[in-house]
Structure to design on (283 residues):
């Protein structure tokens, strides 16, 4: 394999051919179970690179090392968390850089303490990984390629169909910017869905308050279209008249209409009343 190959300088055709050659050489068949779709679009790689800071970085799912090769022209040190043992070996051999370390692990369980995460996030674990990133306070910045539908969920406003639990936890903790949208041809094999780059910049630390917010939204959004007062009564045993200053903010509203600010206010109020708890939170 070409040790000096630079995916940013390649054409789309040459990057696709390089990818196919790597897969053939190492006998790799992309595993649908692990959402293995390898990036073959130099423009997508360049846009990701333009949003990264020159700091120690974690890449979740480095695959055959395509994005890794580009990132190492920008970041100080790159740690890849890759769940597929075979790809760990291949990416290490392809990249061959002393500042590149591959760890065979599940990023839903383990992410090293670094400031920045970059990933073409695997479809089957998208929500879990986003929550893990949210809960890892060392992460100040995340540059992520997501399915367009997931990106739209993160950018959704209260009252919209896409607005939900994931929107709230990410929006409370991060400023979010949506960037370029990419067609299925940006990957091999083609996944059949569009993708969008999203940049998350942390504005708030994950804390017991946010853990309680997660607990509250988990209860409320099981019945997202019902009136808030009815869900609070049925799920938490709280009556509308017990909500003091919150009463006028939520009466007549349905769950999916509640803004993050109102939900945070409600979390604090219910916490003081001892209605919601978050036993799994560890400082």
């Amino acid at each position: 394999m070409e040790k000096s190959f630079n995916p940013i300088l390649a054409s789309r055709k040459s990057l696709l051919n390089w990818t196919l050659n790597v897969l053939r050489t190492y006998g790799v068949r992309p595993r649908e179970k692990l959402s293995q779709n390898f990036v073959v679009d130099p423009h997508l790689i360049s846009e990701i690179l333009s949003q990264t800071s020159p700091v120690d970085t974690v890449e979740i799912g480095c695959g055959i090392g395509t994005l890794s090769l580009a990132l190492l022209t920008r970041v100080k040190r790159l740690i890849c968390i890759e769940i597929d043992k075979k790809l760990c070996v291949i990416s290490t051999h392809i990249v061959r850089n002393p500042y590149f370390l591959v760890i065979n692990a599940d990023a839903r369980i383990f992410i090293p303490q670094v400031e920045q995460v970059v990933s073409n996030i695997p479809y089957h674990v998208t929500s879990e990984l986003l929550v893990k990133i949210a809960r890892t306070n060392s992460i100040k910045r995340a540059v992520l390629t997501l399915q367009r539908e997931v990106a739209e969920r993160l950018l959704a406003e209260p009252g919209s169909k896409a607005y939900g639990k994931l929107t709230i936890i990410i929006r409370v903790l991060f400023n979010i910017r949506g960037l370029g949208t990419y067609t299925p041809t940006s990957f091999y094999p083609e996944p059949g869905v569009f993708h969008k780059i999203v940049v998350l910049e942390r504005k708030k630390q994950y804390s017991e308050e946010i853990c309680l917010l997660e607990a509250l939204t988990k209860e409320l959004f099981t019945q997202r279209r019902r009136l808030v007062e009815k869900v609070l009564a049925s799920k938490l045993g709280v009556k509308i008249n017990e909500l003091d200053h919150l009463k006028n903010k939520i009466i007549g509203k349905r769950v999916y209409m509640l803004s993050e600010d109102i939900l945070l206010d409600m979390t604090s109020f219910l916490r003081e009343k001892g209605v919601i708890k978050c036993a799994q939170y560890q400082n």
Q: What stands out?
A: The first strand starts at residue 38 and ends at 39. The chain has a mean pLDDT of 93. The CA atoms of residues 58 and 112 lie 7 Å apart. The chain has two domains: 12-202, 208-272.
